[in-house]
Every structure is written in C-alpha cells, then in structure tokens.
Amino acid sequence: MNKQIVLDLRETVRTVPGWPIEGVLFRDLTTLMKDPHALRMSCDILFERYKEKKIDKVVGIDARGFVFGAVLAYKLGVGFVPVRKKGKLPYETLEKSYDLEYGSGTLEVHRDAISAGDKVVVVDDLIATGGTVSATVGLVRELGGEVIECSFLIELPDLKGREKLVGCPVFAVMEFDGE
Ligand SMILES: O=P(O)(O)OC[C@H]1O[C@H](OP(=O)(O)OP(=O)(O)O)[C@H](O)[C@@H]1O
Ligand SMILES: Nc1ncnc2[nH]cnc12
Fold first, then answer.
1. Is the CB of residue 161 less than 8 Å from the CB of residue 136?
2. What tens digit of pLDDT does each residue of 8-64 get?
3. Is residue 26 part of a domain?
4. Angle, CA 58 vertex, CA 79 and CA 173 arms, to 5°
5. I need a labelling partner for 168 at 20 to 30 A (CA). Which of 92, 133, 148, 149 fits?
6. How does it assemble (predicted)?
7. Can you give the pLDDT at residue 1?
8. What's the domain count of the chain?
9. Which of 27, 84, 101, 162 is catalytic?
10. Ligand 1 centre distance from Cα of residue 26 (Å)
11. In terms of residue numbers, what domain contains 105?
12. What's this model's pTM, rounded to 2 decimal places?
C-alpha cells in the first residue's frame, strides 16, 4: 500500500522579495512544480474539485497557467485552450488589455477556441490584482463560454483580485499575505 504523503504545500512556494520590481513579494511556484509530491497534490486538488462539474474546456493563462491547466484538462478528459500574450497565436484572435501588479499587457484567444455554451474553468497559477484573469473571463464570455469558476494555486487577498470578478466564483488552493 502507498504511504500517504502529508505535505504543507505552502512550504514548497519560494518567496522572492523585490522581483520583478521593488516592493513586490514574488511567489515563485517553480519550487512547488519541481517537487513531485507537491505538483501531484496540487493537480489532484484541482481535479477533485472539477471532476463532477461537467466541464467542457479548461482555459489556461500564459504562461504559468499552462502547467496546471493542461494537467487538469488531461485528467478531466477535456480540451485545453491557451489564452496567450499578444502576438503568439497564429489564427484569428480576440484580444483584451489588462493591468497587473507589476505592469500591463494584452491577452489573446483564438476565436474558434470556445463554442457558445461551453462550460469553462479558467486556470492560472496566481491571482493578485485580478487584471489578468478578468481580461480572460471577458474573452471567454465574449465567445459565448460560461465560466464555471476561476481557479488558482495562490491568491494574494490583500490585492483584492476577486472583487474584479463579478458573478464569477473564485477558488484558490493557498493564500499568501503581503508580508
Ligand atoms: O492578478 P494579476 O495582478 O493580473 O496578476 C496575476 C498574473 O501575474 C502573473 O503572470 P505574468 O504576467 O507575470 O506572466 P507569466 O505567467 O508569463 O510569468 C501570474 O502568472 C498571473 O497570470
Ligand atoms: N506577487 C506575485 N508573485 C507571483 N506572481 C505574481 N503575479 C502578480 N503578482 C505576483
């Protein structure tokens, strides 16, 4: 019988102060990802949460949302849709601009990636100000998709990101304060 591995996932996240700009406490998930038990536990938590929800597609946000989103899609047996930083997708796209904790940007999705009525879960590694995910939810809804929930490994509650997601449930595996 497999020995159960009890692990505090929070301890596998590395904090890097002052990156990419002064004043930011960067929560680095590469240390969680390189730990096989932490990676598996994180992905299993997401799978258990959505396995009965009749999800049609997982939307993952460039770039760190691709890691967890693709695993979730594989485990659910559904398709994966990448929402990418502007200029990376080759076919017809829809785009939205957004602000985040340390900058701004534009996200794109292929216009044919989501069909009207698709039940979608949006996955990213982290929600801070919520700018990135609210732009993503806007793209999914414009294509006729229904966002069942936005799902993260980490929420930074001090930055009040979930307040930007009106009418959209938010789930996070862990929370980290600003200090
Ligand atoms: O809630 P917000 O304030 O919008 O911030 C959260 C976003 O910031 C990070 O991505 P980043 O833009 O640094 O890109 P990366 O995943 O390519 O590193 C993170 O992966 C989220 O996508
Ligand atoms: N503090 C933070 N750590 C990691 N990723 C982020 N994205 C936005 N803010 C972040």
1. no
2. 999 999 999 999 999 999 999 999 999 999 999 999 999 999 999 999 999 999 999
3. no
4. 145
5. 92
6. Homodimer.
7. 38
8. 1
9. 101
10. 10
11. 53-175
12. 0.95
